[in-house]
TrEMBL record:
PANTHER family for the chain: ALPHA-L-ARABINOFURANOSIDASE C-RELATED (PTHR43576), INTRACELLULAR EXO-ALPHA-L-ARABINOFURANOSIDASE 2 (PTHR43576:SF2)
Protein family (similarity comment): Belongs to the glycosyl hydrolase 51 family.
Gene Ontology molecular function, alphabetical: alpha-L-arabinofuranosidase activity
Keywords (A to Z) from UniProt: Carbohydrate metabolism, Glycosidase, Hydrolase
Keyword Electron transport listed: no
Annotated InterPro entries: Alpha-L-AF_C, ASD1_cat, GH, Glyco_hydro_b
Limits of the Alpha-L-arabinofuranosidase C-terminal domain: 293-473
Organism: Candidatus Enterococcus testudinis
Catalytic activity as recorded in UniProt: Hydrolysis of terminal non-reducing alpha-L-arabinofuranoside residues in alpha-L-arabinosides
The protein's name in its UniProt record: non-reducing end alpha-L-arabinofuranosidase
Superkingdom to which the source organism belongs: Bacteria
Amino acid sequence: MTIKIANTKSGTTISKYIYGHFAEHLGRCIYEGLYVGEDSPIPNKNGMRIDVVEALRNIQIPVLRWPGGCFADEYHWKDGLGPKEARKTMVNTHWGGVTENNHFGTHEFFELVKQLDCDAYVNGNVGSGTVQEMSEWVEYITMDGISPMADLRRENGHDSSWPMKFFGVGNENWGCGGNMRPEYYADLYRRYQTYVRQYGDQKIYKVAGGANVDDYHWTETLMKNAHWLMDGLSLHYYVHPQGWETKGSSLAFDEAEWFVTCEKAAFMDELITRHSAIMDQYDPEKRVGIIVDEWGTWFSAEPGTNPGFLYQQNTIRDAMVAAITLNIFHKHADRVHMANIAQTVNVLQAMILTDGEQMVKTPSYHVFDLYKVHQDAETIDSYGEQSEHITYTISKKEDTVHLSICNFDVTATESLSFSLESAIKEVKEARYIVGDVMNAHNDFDHPDTVTIQTFEDFQVAEEQLSVTVPPMSVLTISLSV
Ligand code: AHR
């Protein structure tokens, strides 16, 4: 397969926010995964796990979405303030029916975001919350001067406001967020977002609750009735190889199911193309972003775990899904302004799994590590032959061209030849991950079964780069040009 690479940038920047993450009050994502509390024997800083924070900083997490998901539309933020022992409890009806003690609230979230050195994406409650409640939350977080909510924040020990870049007005309001029709939600969106006021200098990027998968009517209705009042419109899509009811196992699957999984991941391309085409009619300049704030694999919960906790293992197949999907987001970088894989720790397609004080990085984590070079880089145009099981991205930042390739074939090695417009001065770095079996994965006894290694199977001759890509692999080569 031969591909020509244009040396000029396309003019489209891959927003770093495409590499965003999502953390919900669900199973062991927040509690145990990110937050263990100040008194835990697990090493922590102000309650946040030091090992997990360090791992997430390494992949340059740009933004974290919180508190849900479905949880967001039954979360009442004032319950998560003040002395922890005195905080009101609630039942987490969506996720296992467990009692939520509200020990992780607004102050803890912004402490986490500070430690991660990333931006905050807070998701408000439309389904069971009032306009006043949402409006006051924004005031509590972002108001610096004298006001009832800013004063309340000070009483709770935080003097200055926090930077909040993104705010979501409800979640899945077609389902767990209120079972609404798009016409009704569009009106509610118009009303609720009015009171998401800007108190400081920072403009809040407002995200309207968008479609479930291919519900194009939802997108049409929201754009028609409210596009000028939103900055982003969300889209949720999960990959269930056996469909929503049975989903499929994260570890036990055959070759046919491997390819179904990869094909379902590739469906993201059609989804973005079609939703974007509708948005183009109302917003041809692409001012309103598609915010894919939930995506990833969703398998059956790991046997022996609480099914409501959505804990699943993560294999080299998940790494293929991550690479295929990120390559699609790059292709649509003019419309996709942010994406948040679900979910950061211990839930669905997690970056990290924990068990007590142990922590393991998943194959998906390593894809985010290999791909972080594309954050805020410009895409590079290329053309040439295509191969059925190859997907790739080429981007450029300053004088470095970054090439990432995913070969999701199970047995076939692919020989690829890339032809640049000028001579390659130097190969700065070449790294990859590879699976030896379809369900290769890391666990607490074998944390490095799938890990990043140096990649050596390439040749450079003048402007020509030849790469031999093994099956079930993801690689990134950085070239100085
Ligand atoms: O990520 C798990 C759940 O999936 C979220 O809470 C919800 O928004 C979606 O249905």
